[in-house]
Design brief:
Layout (H helix, E strand, L loop, with lengths): L10 H15 L2 H33 L4 H29 L4 H4 L18 H16 L1 H20 L5 H17 L1 H16 L37
């Protein structure tokens, strides 16, 4: 499969030109902001969001603190695994970047020589966001919004087709959800062992925190397991 879209006569390319066309009309400084946000800023924001969720969870403690931290650990691991899965997909599809096939695009980032489908940035952010949603719904919703913004930025920057982004969202979601049970089965014993150690317990719960039956922020204290945000 060489190219998924080679002409402007399909909705994918039309939407590419519509979104990327906004970059031509925007001020130079705004394009530079979008370039940074789309290339680095949202990825950094996702990491900080996960750390914020972890920090609040360890301060609360709770009986499920180890499971909560295990769920948060799965977020970056899911992103890394999804990118590995994407490697053979890119090699099989071999779709060139849109600016190599279509003229008149405003390309905000140079040096992109690899294939376009699927978007690594969209894959990473959505995998982290969905895994975070499994751990904590409130933080997860914010993460999903950031992932959607990432996808918009990649098209705005002229480095991906909209379907590259949609494919990345689908891949990240599939990896984060389908492998979540296995990941929790492997990570939870590890975090429980850390919780019981003398040197690493602070990573799971803050000193002085007592088991209260709550999990990371966003979960009601004492709520039944079926109503908790954490899906172990």
């Amino acid at each position: 499969m060489a190219v998924l879209a080679e002409t402007g006569s399909n909705p994918d390319v039309d939407l590419l030109y519509d979104i990327n066309g906004l970059a031509k009309d925007a001020p130079h400084w705004f394009d530079r902001v979008m370039e940074y946000v789309g290339e680095y800023g949202i990825l950094l924001g996702m990491v900080l969001l996960i750390l914020w969720c972890w920090w609040g969870g360890r301060r609360r403690g709770g009986e499920d603190a180890a499971s909560s931290v295990a769920a948060l650990l799965w977020a970056p691991l899911a992103a890394a695994l999804a990118v590995l899965v994407n490697i053979p997909i890119r090699g099989f599809v071999e779709r060139p970047r849109p600016f190599r096939t279509h003229e008149g695009l405003e390309v905000l980032v140079s040096g992109k020589t690899d294939y376009s489908f699927v978007s690594d940035h969209a894959t990473i952010t959505m995998a982290m966001a969905v895994a975070l949603f499994v751990a904590n719904r409130k933080f997860g919703v914010v993460g999903i919004l950031l992932a959607l913004l990432e996808g918009f930025c990649r098209v705005y920057m002229g480095v991906h087709y909209p379907t590259d982004v949609v494919g990345g969202f689908a891949l990240g979601t599939a990896v984060a959800l389908l492998l979540s049970p296995l990941a929790m089965a492997l990570l939870t014993p590890l975090t429980r062992a850390i919780e019981g150690s003398s040197k690493g317990a602070w990573l799971i719960r803050a000193r002085g925190s007592e088991p209260t039956g709550s999990v990371i922020p966003g979960t009601r204290q004492g709520a039944p397991a079926s109503e908790r945000d954490l899906a172990a």
